[in-house]
Design goal:
The protein is of the alpha+beta class. It is built from 15 helices and 32 strands. The N terminus is likely disordered.
Length: about 725
């Protein structure tokens, strides 16, 4: 055995009498860890490569539903881009005990390092924040949610931070016979509020955990202090994270990542944008990550602290990290070593001053994203700016709860936001001739695999004497907007749970003179204060058809420089652009266009020339949550029998074919909140019921796979929206 291999193997415990000596083509060298879901072994491939092999425990493996999910999740994990992650090399779902094989990552875990030697130094901390965010972006792009990101699942390797132990967490949720300790995935100190409540889990749970992990790396303490699991879970639900000591350049980013409402957190790509600053706008983010990590040096091995002596447990083990393992999974240690011994836990709070990024801006126009400076180069400037903001902004803007200047403050809102598994749509079923606005919860909302349960219940939000159409959801998911065909200035707002009375918008101020087109769908700005919609008149009442940005209270109206045919606007996640479709000769389709929200900005056609050459006709554009893709519906080459869903990479203009069902009439694309891979749409695929419109789901990263059907009842289920875009 080579000396380096002997060194690594010394960190594993010897194989026991009942441990296997081989698994498939892999030779086992020792045991790296054991936990709630099984055992992790150190192994060697036939080519001599060291690997970590996670073997599922026998009683879990006996569950047929688990095996099915394991196969799907492991196959998906193999597609994760190798960016700051442990590469998934192999898996066998048919083995007596299924197993997953990943590369072995050598180095101390973040948990071990900080517990022994204290917080990371500035350079390593910034590199860690970027590296883990890059790993999450790669994991989420493959349609995976880690679900248990924490310091013991991040390895400080010689090449940079590496995220481990992802890929099959969802499979554990599936088994009907699994014990309760396996159904509550997550580690108390890093569990998001939605995990604690048992709400559907999306990628935003990982963003929350990223904030907690960076807090731990920066300060040596957990984001909600120390105590029993019950205490930490209570604090996560009811208190703000304790961010005292987090670097001023990272503080506002961590704060936004740990907002209670997952919809208000950035996604992984937006997180990367904020971490990289302008450097991230100049090229491929992966290249920028490589540049940030170019001078990474593994922190020197800690020599002080109160942690145990260095053992195999201090290093990357990919050990199962589910409840039911060591005591610290259910009780976080009451003492965590930091650079200052016996430092008392900080008081609850740590909230940044009003005015940090993402909190919106007062006034009559949408907030513009400020020019970003690279986090890695701008720490000193950030200290000065944040200190100035803390002193000046509260005096200028008033308290955090001050709603003056917020044109959306009057909107009806539900007490609780719609869950991220809940969409809104227009529905007509049975003999009722009218369209109603309803909501629907999607089972397994992050999985497009065919055959999973369909939507089994719709909740009526609002009905009226006339058709109610074209709904949209506010960014806080507490208000639903829709068009009432029986009223002038038809945009309405109602609490998302249907309680209270609806409110008619644009009845006063400059907006009272606009005339919203009867087929106009609104799109809502990311701060929830403005709508963009098609109107046939301007604020003076004169005929001037086009797209208008209108304050929710009607206090301001501004026409965008669009053609009269412009329709179906979609506001970008960063609030800086609006996509729509237009044409030159009339009709209900054309080509895609994008325009900045800056006053006086000119529209930029995306595929006008190409569609003129091919005869393609596009409509229904909608931004992906990461702002990189536009999904839309297309009549292919002018053939009405080929109405399909496509997507365009907004940077390269590359077109991606999403559906390929000839004669299916696919329309209404809508992204799942926080996911830039899960896309829903409506379609008619039953020639025996031509009036039906059902809802389908697909994963854009596996578009060749069959689509999942979400509704099966006869009737019209259409115009759906899953987020504010």
């Amino acid at each position: 055995m080579a000396s380096s291999e002997a060194n690594v193997s010394s960190r594993a415990t010897p194989l026991g009498e009942n441990d296997p000596r081989t698994l498939g083509s892999y030779t086992l060298l020792g045991k790296l860890g054991q936990g709630g879901m099984g055992t992790v072994y150190l192994g060697r491939s036939e080519l001599g490569r060291l690997v970590a092999i996670k073997v599922v425990r026998a009683d879990v493996a006996d569950d047929a539903q688990f095996r099915s999910r394991f196969r799907q999740e492991a196959a998906t994990a193999r597609r994760v881009a190798r960016v700051c992650t442990a590469e998934v090399l192999d898996f066998d779902p048919e083995a007596e005990q299924p197993y997953l094989v990943t590369e072995f990552i050598e180095g101390p875990t973040l948990q071990s390092f900080v517990s022994k030697g204290g917080p990371l130094a500035d350079a390593n901390l910034e590199q860690l924040a970027v590296g883990v965010a890059a790993a999450l972006r790669a994991i989420h792009a493959a349609g995976i949610v880690h679900r248990d990101l924490k310091p013991s699942n991040v390895v400080l390797s010689p090449f940079g931070p590496r995220v481990i132990d992802f890929g099959i967490a969802r499979a554990l949720d599936s088994g009907a016979g699994l014990t309760g300790d396996l159904q509550q995935l997550g580690t108390p100190a890093f569990m998001s509020p939605e995990q604690i409540r048992g709400d559907p889990i999306t990628s935003k749970a990982d963003i929350w955990a990223w904030g907690g992990l960076v807090t731990f790396a920066a300060t040596g303490h957990y984001p909600f202090g120390m105590g029993s699991a019950q205490v930490l879970l209570f604090r996560a639900l009811n208190e703000e994270p304790r961010l005292d000591g987090v670097d001023p350049g990272l503080h506002p980013i961590v704060w936004d990542s740990m907002r209670k409402n997952p919809y208000e957190r950035p996604n992984a790509s937006q997180l990367m944008d904020r971490l990289l600053g302008d450097a991230g706008d100049t090229g491929d983010q992966d290249e920028q990550v490589t540049n940030v990590l170019a001078d990474w040096k593994v922190p020197p091995a800690p020599t002080g602290g109160r942690g145990p002596a260095t053992t195999g447990g201090d290093f990357a083990t990919l050990a199962a990290t589910r409840p039911g393992q060591p005591a610290d999974e259910n009780f976080v240690p009451t003492q965590v070593a930091t650079r200052v011994a016996n430092t008392p836990a900080p008081a609850p709070g740590g909230a940044p001053p009003y005015g940090y990024p993402g909190q919106g801006a007062p006034g009559g126009q949408p907030e513009k994203r400020r020019s970003k400076r690279p986090l890695i180069l701008g720490i000193v400037a950030a200290v000065i700016v944040i200190a100035a903001l803390a002193a000046v902004l509260p005096m200028v803007l008033g308290g955090k709860d001050d709603k003056s200047g917020d044109p959306s403050a009057f909107l009806p809102r539900s007490t609780a936001p719609l869950g991220l598994d809940t969409m809104v749509l227009a529905q007509k079923v049975g003999a009722d001739p009218k369209y109603h606005i309803v909501t629907a919860q999607v089972p397994d909302a992050d999985n497009a695999t065919p055959g999973l349960p369909t939507i089994n219940q719709f909740k009526n939000v609002i009905s009226g004497p006339d058709d109610l159409l074209l709904p949209a959801i506010s960014p806080d998911r507490q208000t639903i907007f829709y068009i009432d065909k029986g009223l002038k200035n038809t945009m309405m707002a109602v609490a998302a749970d249907g309680t209270g009375q609806p409110v008619q918008l644009f009845t006063s101020g400059p907006a009272a003179n606009i005339s919203i087109a009867p087929d106009a769908r609104p799109s809502i700005s990311p701060d929830g204060k403005f709508a963009v919609i098609r109107s046939t008149t301007d604020e003076t009442g004169q005929s001037h058809t086009g797209l208008y940005i209108i304050a929710m209270d009607g206090s301001s109206v501004r026409r965008l420089d669009t053609a009269p045919q412009a329709s179906d606007p979609s506001w970008s996640p960063d609030g800086e652009r609006i996509a729509y479709w237009s044409n030159e000769f009339g009709g209900d389709r054309g080509f895609l266009v994008i325009i900045s929200t800056d006053p006086g900005a000119k529209a930029v056609p995306l595929n006008k020339v190409e569609n003129a050459q091919t005869g393609n006709l596009d409509a229904d554009p909608t931004w992906s949550p990461d702002g990189k893709l536009l999904a839309f519906s297309r009549v292919v080459k002018g053939d009405p029998q080929q109405l399909e869903i496509y997507a365009m990479d907004i940077n390269t203009k590359k077109i991606i074919v999403i559906t390929k069902e000839v004669g299916a009439d696919d329309q209404d694309p809508a992204w799942a909140p926080g996911s830039s891979s899960i896309l829903t749409f409506t379609s008619n695929r039953d020639p025996n019921n031509p009036g039906d419109r059902e809802i389908y789901m697909t994963n854009v990263n596996a578009a060749d796979n069959p689509d999942r059907q979400l509704t099966t009842g006869h009737g019209y289920h259409g115009q759906l929206r899953w987020d504010s875009r």
